[in-house]
């Protein structure tokens, strides 16, 4: 499957070496790894290859962290992989976990750097990870970032170009990117599956995969020069939701020491401007009922699903989006309780946290025009009896004003929500929290209409702009990427993003309603005006906590 592709890759690499400036020195042999080879881990020996783009980084890609979840292991917790004999060549990406992509249909302006590279294939046998290390020896004990990809728990992969962590690793951090089961194969809940579990639960297999990967990191990352006691879990969208869920899972306790949640954190009483929230969960019983209703409409049951191939399962009709099926559930084992209960008891995995989102997500759509009647109707539908008060705080007498106000509202809403989440999280936390909003516009066609859209921060945080050929990046973009990767690397090292040459990012304080603006005009900004913040707080408090 991989032979021709990687032969072509090797040829292109040789061509690249001819033209890169450091190639002329003769100091970097083709595909030689700067990290001592082979590396011995608990399942065997393996070798990697040197990064062409970042010569101080060694790539190890396609390392199994669990046994293939196929056959009798479908809808079972992951188990460790088998040991191998000889030396494994960890020099290519693993297959994409079984999925059907819907992102292109929903967001046609998003280009291929945000989609899995299907040239690597698709398989249920997908529980592999990548390690990108700048270490020179196993004794270096560098900080570690474990990247959890997004995709609404339905799609995504470590093969997504923008998820490439080599550029972030070049900042002095060992970066690990993991796959995990998705959709119906990762989150199906049913009474039949409950009976197969010693805990009498089902679903959340994707989270169990993530936890298994973190166990692998704890056991093996020192062999790559990483420090198992300085592990940061980080992710975007449902990857950020995963970070938040892992902070309330006792099964993940001690497996990480920091967390970064990009576009996946909301206050527990926030209904969300669009109703789509990566922190959303169901009870186990509700998840089972919803999943059973979906299967009934498809004319299948668990017994029939077990006999179906991956290809047949992928041909089942789409569930509604946002997903009404196959997502996280509070099962009493992986997730014993929801956020509000967990935080109120101080039972979360208490670690330093970075949390924030992008300026043009969650209802902020720069390219969408709004008329005054539409704006007033939206306010009535969203805020009910509080609509008139809202319209006094965010008045609009013309269509142009209505359009601008919708953007301002969405951004104030997001910052207020994340601030209130931080207030709740910090109630019994002993560690620092840092909140932000990203506002750098992603360049390309219709960039002003798309703005700083959901996910546009990923290539900057991971310093992976080099993987993108369709976008006209300029020096300003590369400067912003350098800044973002530096903040994230500093946080992984110390639990604080601040460092030399960076704008000061204050830790959250209940006495100061501010957030960090990252991207353009980086610096501290108000969460919202006092009256607008108080409005959102009272509005949120009319909803039940999750």
Main traits of this protein?
2 domains, globular, disordered N terminus, 18 helices, 546 residues, 11-stranded mixed beta sheet, alpha/beta, Rossmann fold
Q: How would you describe what is shown here?
A:
The chain is built from 18 helices and 18 strands. It is an alpha/beta fold. It has two domains: 1-30; 31-540, 3-Layer(aba) Sandwich (Rossmann fold). An eleven-stranded mixed beta sheet has the order 3-4-8-10-9-11-12-15-16-17-18, with helices on both faces. Strands 1-2-5 form a three-stranded mixed beta sheet, with no helix packed on it. The protein has a two-stranded parallel sheet with strand order 6-7. α12 (372-383) packs across α13 and α14 (399-426) packs across α18. The radius of gyration is 23 Å and the shape is globular. Residues 1-32 have low confidence and may be disordered.
